[in-house]
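> tool_call: predict_assembly(chains=two)
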Amino acid sequence: MEPDELWKELSRLPRPEPAPQRAAEIQQRARARFLDRARTSSADPREPRAERARNAWAWFEVAVVAGFALAYGGWTVQVVAQLRDERLGRAEHFAADAQRLDPAE
Amino acid sequence: MDTPEFRARLRAGAAGAFDQVYAHFHPPLYRYLARLSLDVSLAEELLQEVWLRFADRAHTLPDEIELGAWLFTVARNLYLSQRRREAVRRRWLRATPADASASGSQASPFEALCSSRAQLELEAGLAALPEHQREILILVAIEQLSPSQAARILEIEPAAARKRLMRARQLLAEHLQHERAPRSAKEVT
């Protein structure tokens, strides 16, 4: 059988419809659920899933930044304070030296 | 059916919109599942689940999602899950090959509806193809979906879908030739 002929034959294969009674049963059940969901979703409008995911991700980012700030922020403050103390200590030391070596005394 | 107005009606919960989608897609989904699973009752069972899922999600489906492709994809995924469950069950029961073949027929459920010998052979040939090749032929050649729509449903690249389609057609032609050769030899003798 030629490829084109095969294609035509395939498109002519039987296209049966599902059993009407079973199809009606499924439709009735699914439609009842569809209407029920529509009622519930209009009474309680929830954020769409994508929106919820974006919000969750944003909160996660905030938490990570805050965590870093807490962990390294304390450490940075400590280092700055230490440097300041060292500088002040040195300044006091030089001031004392200067006083000791003051020729006017 | 994929117009923004129709989708808005669907989101709003219009029963008429639901009925329209159902009337349009129920028969092709049924044929697809029946030819894929080679089992009409399993197809009906899975189809019910497809529509219940649609009822759950119809209000939140974004406009850019094509309804037909979504429904066929859900149908396919449900079928694949069912197959996996069945395979696990068989492994647990340590089914013998005889048991396994007894649980599912390998003939098309629509053979009785064929009006000619050629159709019968074609339907049988289709049922004998490997599943992934059978399903692309069902979608494109029988249900008249475009190869790119079929690619979306099968979750493959359009180029891969075209390649698979070509291979499936080739295999089916070979199968038919193989089936007809002994018969014509018998007719000659």
